[in-house]
User: What shape does this take?
Amino acid sequence: MLIEEAVVGSEIGCAVIGNGGDLVLGEVDRVALSHGFFRIHQEATPETGSENSSFICPADISPAARDLVQETAKRIYRVLGCRGLARVDLFLKDDGSVVLNEVNTLPGLTSYSRYPRMMKAAGLPLGDVVDRLVSLALPWK
Assistant: This one.
């Protein structure tokens, strides 16, 4: 059994791509819930998303909160030694602090996935994301 403290806040995500010190951050998004708990999608029709949530990208948060989310995501990515890409999901609490939710080291790259939407909003379309990933994976990089 695992018991965790409830975190009251909004789920916020940040896409990260790169290795070491050369990181590119996507735009921050927010999971907007109409009710209940966030469920990733409906398995029968994943492109329609969840019946109780939608994604706001860029997130409707203050510039200071956006900066905190991006800097925290970058720091977590580096501390964990991530390479290539990841989506760092956090909770933004009402007091303005952030709490790590999870690091998704293999985020979806479909047209309805969060990661490509965040990168596109930051000016990096999916084709460029894939090109960058291939380049990062080459042995001489």
Remarks:
- The two ends are 44 Å apart (CA to CA).
- The mean pLDDT is 88.
